[in-house]
Automatic annotation (TrEMBL):
CDD domains (alphabetical): NTP-PPase_HisIE_like (cd11534)
Principal location: cytoplasm
Leading EC class: hydrolase
Reactions listed under catalytic activity: 1-(5-phospho-beta-D-ribosyl)-ATP + H2O = 1-(5-phospho-beta-D-ribosyl)-5'-AMP + diphosphate + H(+)
Protein name: Phosphoribosyl-ATP pyrophosphatase
InterPro entries: HisE, PRib-ATP_PPHydrolase-like
Keywords tagged on the record: Amino-acid biosynthesis, ATP-binding, Cytoplasm, Histidine biosynthesis, Hydrolase, Nucleotide-binding
Compartments reported by the entry: Cytoplasm
Record family assignment: Belongs to the PRA-PH family.
Length: 105
């Protein structure tokens, strides 16, 4: 198991936890929209650090982005394995060709 698998499992386990006992449970209790908003905020912070060129801060913000992405997915009952399967399906396909196929569909 990877650290992302471990983190996704921890997030799933906290879905029903007391919001006062866990930041993850508190965030999930606010609903999918709030989880998406928080993911967006973290993504913007990562973008800012990427533009500034601060590797340490970008690394930290990227970890926040991955965590909040997993929370957002959990809020909508999308499994990490489903996302990984989609990436595997796309592997070896040109990004240009893959996007064109999505645009036609």
């Amino acid at each position: 198991m990877s650290i992302l698998d471990d983190l996704a499992a921890t997030i799933a386990a906290r879905k029903g936890a007391d919001p006062e006992s866990s930041w993850t449970a508190k965030l999930l209790s606010k609903g999918p929209e709030k989880c998406a908003e928080k993911f967006g905020e973290e993504a913007v912070e990562a973008i800012i650090e990427a533009v500034k060129g601060d590797r340490a801060r970008l690394t930290s913000e990227a970890a926040d982005v991955l965590y909040h992405l997993l929370v957002m997915l959990a809020a909508r009952d999308v499994a990490l394995d489903d996302v990984l399967a989609e990436l595997a399906r796309r592997q070896g396909t040109s990004g240009i060709a893959e996007k064109a196929a999505r645009d036609r569909g």
